[in-house]
Amino acid sequence: MMRIGYSVEGSTDRALMKGLQHRWCNKAQLMEGQFRGSSGQSRRREIPNTCIELIFKEADIIVFLRDANDEDWRDALRNERKHCRPEHQHLTIFGVCHRNVECWICADAEWIAAKTGKPAPDFRIADPKRVFEHAMDISSFDRKEEEIAKLVQDAPLQNWLSNRSFEDFYDALWQKSKELGCSIENLRSRPQKPQS
Known about the structure:
Layout: E1 3-7, H1 11-24, E2 29-32, H2 40-56, E3 61-67, H3 73-82, E4 92-97, H4 101-105, H5 109-116, H6 120-123, H7 129-136, H8 145-154, H9 157-160, H10 164-180
Parallel strand pairs: 1-2, 1-3, 3-4
Helix pairs in contact: 1-8
């Protein structure tokens, strides 16, 4: 059984990982690393520590996923990668969401609107995080992880490729899947919805 180690910043990111795992590698075991900080200094220290922890747990791959927030996602991605030790690089995939993971989930505004019963224009904004949280009725007491994971599992991911940061993450996963024998669907072979 494949073991997928991962480290994320929040519950929606964790739900995204679970949804992708159910969709692409249903028999794989997910193992969350114990990331302990969110500052730049913490990340420099914790990325190598998380790799060591997950390698000890026999992870076949380690995925780091975080939001760019106000940073350029490409710069944030470069910074993440440089904190990974050379001996761990062959095991790691880094994803940095442009702004936040909700931008990926809401990349297809019509689809997410149909799923949540909210108007599509509400999701066609630069940062749909608050709209998505409201539409999903997310609270500090109920993060709706299972519901979000199911959304991701069933999402038209080929339409998410319009978000360059998701496209980069998908490409890294696609390449690694060839090495590990996990069947990730070829999103580029599916018709993509035209940009509006």
